[in-house]
Structures are given as C-alpha cells and as structure tokens.
Design brief:
The protein has 3 helices and 15 strands. The chain is α+β, with helices and mostly antiparallel strands. It has 2 domains: 71 residues, Beta Barrel (OB fold (Dihydrolipoamide Acetyltransferase, E2P)), CATH 2.40.50; 147 residues, Trna Endonuclease, Chain: A, domain 1, CATH 3.40.1350.60. The chain has a 6-stranded antiparallel sheet, with no helix packed on it. It has a 6-stranded mixed sheet with strand order 7-8-9-12-14-15. It is globular. 38% of the residues are buried. It comes from Sneathiella chinensis. This is Sugar fermentation stimulation protein homolog. InterPro entries: SfsA, SfsA_C, SfsA_N.
C-alpha cells in the first residue's frame, strides 16, 4: 500500500480524547491531527516522538491531517487502524500470503455473524472450495524486546469476533484470524493475556474449534507500508 501523498514529518505533543493528537510541524506550527486508533497505543504516544502525517484530500474535512506513523527509536510503527484491511487484501491478491491464495473473489466488509462485518471474504465457487472468513487485527504493542502483542487494551469487540469465527468453522467454512504487525522490530507474537484475560480465553477456544491463526509483519517507510513475512506465534 502506497501513501497517496507525501507524508509530513512532525513531533508529537500529545494524544487525547482517543482520536485527537497535537503535532508540532517542522516550521513550528502546531496542528491537530485525527488519530485513527481506538486502542490504548501503549508505548506509542510519548511526547517528543517523531511522527508522520498524511494531508487530507478533502478541503472541507474538519481535521486536515491524519496521524499515520510514529518513530519509537527502534522502528516506524503504523498506527492507522483503517489501513490493515487494505494492506492484507493487497498482499492476498498479489499472492504474498500462501495460506490464502487461489481464491476467485476477494470481498471486503461483508455482513456476517451477529450484526458484524468480516474484514475479508474469500470465495471460489468454481472449484467448490469453502469460503474463507478473514478477520484482520492491527498489532502495534511491544513491551519486551522482539515480542509483539495483542491486544493493547480490553477488547470486547475482538472477543466477539473470535466467537463468530468459531461459528463460521462450525458452519463448514474456513475462518482466519490474521494479525498484522505494523512494525519491524518484532521477531515473535503472543496474546497479551494479562491485559485482556477474556480475549485470551476466547482465542484458545477459537483455535481449538478450528480457527486458523496467521501473523505477518510489515516493511514500513514514509512512502509505503507492505507486508513482509510471517512472524511465529508464541503459545
């Protein structure tokens, strides 16, 4: 996924009210940028961190910038949670996810379950393959050297998604939980059970029911974010 416009460098002043952030630009101007991330952003919101913003294409938009990347000192990190679905969809379409190749159609945001939408639905009726329901989660948390974790806050919605994926397996479909690590400094992935024990239990139940789990990381630059390769899951 390429950024449509050159990103603008700045310095984080503060993140507040979940979806707002104040950024100082190189010329000393302070702007308020949209923060498209509902999580805690643990370890990513320290004042003084270098950040990159994308300018809004719509001049009528209230906030003219969106916060895209943060530099933690060990890696650029993609914090915009609206991008992972696009990144994963492009990678599947281009054949970079061997576990999910060969499907005839790829659809996004398809209704399923209990008033939910699946991030990616793969279908191949011509070859009589079962549909594959793919839920994508953005991973940015790192509390220990080399270890990515999810979630970074209690997520009742995430727990609900795991249960709905299990239902899809029971109905005869493939169901996939896909964790996209939007940083380059992690060599393993694990569930942050201390942050959300209920999510950890739901994750274990989903795997036992047949839900597949894949973890991939990204190459991140101010010009693009692209899927890089698999990251091992630590049980």
């Amino acid at each position: 996924m390429d950024f449509p416009s050159p990103l603008i460098r700045g310095t984080l002043i503060k993140r507040y009210k979940r979806f707002l952030s104040d950024i100082e630009l190189a010329d000393g101007t302070t702007v308020t940028a949209h923060c498209a991330n509902s999580g805690s952003m643990m370890g990513l919101k320290e004042p003084g961190y270098g950040v990159w913003l994308s300018p809004a294409n719509n001049p009528k938009r209230k906030l003219q910038y969106s916060w895209e990347l943060v530099d933690t000192g060990t890696s650029l990190v993609g914090i915009n949670t609206s991008l992972p679905n696009r990144i994963v969809t492009e990678a599947i379409r281009d054949g970079h996810v061997p576990e999910l190749t060969g499907y005839e159609t790829i659809r996004n945001e398809v209704k399923y379950g209990q008033n939910s939408r699946i991030d990616i639905l793969l279908q191949d009726s011509a070859n009589d393959r079962p549909d594959a329901y793919v839920e994508v989660k953005n991973v940015t948390l790192k509390r220990r050297d080399g270890a990515a974790e999810f979630p970074d806050a209690v997520t009742a919605r995430g727990t609900k998604h795991l249960k709905e994926l299990s239902d899809m397996v029971a109905a005869g479909h493939r169901a996939v939980m896909f964790y996209l690590v939007q940083r380059e400094d992690c060599q393993s992935f694990e569930i942050a059970r201390d942050i959300d024990p209920a999510y950890g239990e739901a994750f274990d139940t989903a795997r036992k029911s047949g839900v597949e789990v894949y973890v991939y990381d990204c190459q991140i630059t101010p010009e693009y974010i692209r899927m890089r390769g698999p990251v091992p899951l630590v049980e």
